[in-house]
Amino acid sequence: MKLSAPELRERAAQAREQYASCLLCAHRCGVDRRSGPAGICNEGDGLWLAGAGVQLGEEPQLVPSGLLLIGGCNLACQTCETFDFSLERRGLTAVSPEELAALLLDLQRQGASNANFVTPTHVLPAVLEGLAVAAQAGFALPVVWNCGGYESLEALRLLEGIVDFYLPDAKYGDDAAAFELSGCKRYTAALRESLAEMHRQVGPSRIIIRHLVLPEGVAAPEKVMPLIAGISRDLCVNVMSQYRPVFRAARFPVIARGVTAVEVRAAVAAARAAGLQSILVDGRPAA
Fold first, then answer.
1. Do 8 and 135 contact (CB within 8 A), yes or no?
2. Dihedral angle at the C-alpha atoms of 242, 248, 254, 260, nearest 10 degrees?
3. Using one digit for the tens of pLDDT, what is the confidence trace for 101-159?
């Protein structure tokens, strides 16, 4: 983080104003979240966590990562691996800014190399409030913003000077699939705008874009890879192969199975064809 504790408090105050007419993500609901759950995410202005701890399973350059699993989500993915706390909000604990700060300081003491906020978009103001308290007490870890790629420019601009590393998804290259499977309108346009703003803030070396391969090419890697390369060919893409049909995937026969090695190779080939220079597969350099 480049901002001081007083600057973080000021930025957190600016962010909290968003709850009155929420534009924190690309849904741009414009609803008042101060008096309870509202909008497409159906969230209020509090912060709920599913867990926190030092984790070794992220991309190699980010481990050991201080993971903070945030409850709720601004997306409604029908294949969500963490649907229990992301969509059904089970097993969550309400966390105040002071409690979040204590968790951040504990992760720092445990030797985490960063604070990795997972699905934080819908609670950005609450996260900044916790960071402000933590910074006052000596917190100094880099901040990783681990998000779905469906961001708003208003929200991302509030993060400038705070986020050190962006870890967005590039879920789809096809808007129809994005709407059917995640409830997102104009996903690809929002993704393009979000990646361009992230790139402006931190440059290509501090962004890793995740693309989860779906069966039958449903995620359209042949479209999403050129979109990424259009921002910068130096952006790193992590092609992920771990898809499995969970949550409501069985309702969609085309994705009611895992992915094949051929489908993963097709996504890697699409990245190469787009001219991307840094390609990972499940966090390791592509063969």
1. yes
2. 10
3. 999 999 999 999 999 999 999 999 999 999 999 999 999 999 999 999 999 999 999 99
Q: Order of strands across the sheet with 115-118?
A: 93-94, 48-55, 65-70, 115-118, 143-147, 165-168
The length of the chain in residues reads 287
Q: Distance (Å, rounded) from C-alpha 99 to C-alpha 180?
A: 37
The residue type of 86 is S
Domain boundaries, the chain: 5-285
Q: Which residue has the tokens 């929002």?
A: 190
Tell me the C-alpha to C-alpha distance, in Å, between residue 262 and each of 212, 214, 217, 238, 266. Answer: 14, 12, 10, 16, 6
CATH number of 5-285: 3.20.20.70
Q: Is the pTM of this model over 0.90?
A: yes
Calculated CA dihedral for residues 283, 104, 52, 36, nearest 10 degrees:
-110
Long-range pairs for 42-47: beta carbons < 8 A, 24 or more residues apart: 42/72, 43/72, 43/122, 43/123, 45/16, 45/19, 45/125, 45/126, 46/94, 46/123, 46/126, 47/94, 47/95, 47/96, 47/97, 47/100, 47/123, 47/126, 47/127, 47/130
